[in-house]
User: Fold this.
Amino acid sequence: MTRHIEMLDALFKHATEGIVVVDKSGAIVMLNPKAKELFGYTDPDLIGKKIEALIPQRYAGNHVHYRDHYLEAPRARGMGHLMDLFARRSDGSEFPVEVSLSPFKTSDGEFVVSFVIDITERKKQENRIREANLEIQKLNAELEERVEQRTRELAEAVKKVEESQEEVIRALKKEKELNNMKSQFVTIASHEFRTPLATILSSASLIGRYGTSEEEKKRQKHVKRIKSAVTNLTEILNDFLSIGKLEEGRVHSIPVQVDLDAYCRNLIDEIHGLCKERQQIRFEYNGNTEVWLDKQLLRNILFNLLSNGIKYSDPGKIILLKINSNDVQVDIEVHDEGIGIPVKDQPNIFDRFFRAHNAGATQGTGLGLNIVNNYVSLMGGQVTFSSEAGKGTTFFVKLPNVVPAQAKID
Ligand code: ADP
Assistant:
């Protein structure tokens, strides 16, 4: 052997790649020791066999076709670009390979040499990297989810802090309002209580002086004055208590079945004592005998409206209470022929402590209509009015006549 051939032979024998040479028909003509080792064959086994013997059965059929195609225009190239290639060992087991092909010619004809590398380790490594990547992706996703979760929690916590801040501000505002109201109460009470208390004091001392039975009429007059002054004081106190309860959200509308006609007649009897000389309260009732309303709230509404009608009308005037009711609604009208409410004061008439300019020396706190408005709302209704200064005033109250769900079941 010449030195060159010796060297080539050594290269062939010691190459770390498997080298397989096939002829034009695809028959194996030569393979180096590494190829035998890779494929698990001993020497004479493979010579003359088709190259498909080294390919897993499922790919072998197609391979014949690829091989023919390649031999039509052979050139050096890698095999199975972008594809996983597998080789088959003599025992049928498979292993991943990388193959490159080179055609060549000798005086014996055309051949193709393939260089085969077992890439099992590389694939394992790739798989490990892929798995690690997957794991990283998973961890990333988890991390992102956790960050999102934390962000959400943080946003919620911030919202809660903001809400509680708002609550504190609201509570402070309410506290301030209550304090204002209390100081207003002290101011009003000291004004409004003075007159009835003075009346009570003077009437009581006069009564004490009327010793004879001829003076019985005068005595009765002063007893009536005392009663009226006490009622007045009680109403002022009741109004303050009502406002306090409303502020605390302790007032609720609880409808019960009422014979409204009879209920109003009783109430009118009670209020009658407040009437000035020759004043009359007239009453008209039409509609359902029984309606569903909260009695306590209704009493306060009617009492406030009727006593205002009395207070703000001259002696001898008529105050009219008119009620129409049906299955769904109760319409109440309280009409008087009194001083009326000036147009410029009308927008504020339901404001707490507000009194119209023409109220003058008439006793009052400016709380009654505010309470009426609140109670009517609690009952699910509406209150409006029409008034002309010097002519009179009519208040309209619409209340739903609703049988509560609980009562329907009963
Ligand atoms: P008060 O009568 O204690 O002052 P209200 O809240 O009941 O308080 O009424 C508020 C104001 O509305 C009164 O001060 C008065 O100026 C006016 N007002 C209420 N009702 C009538 C009425 N029937 N006629 C004229 N003015 C009225």
Summary: The chain has three domains: 2-118, 123-247, 256-409.
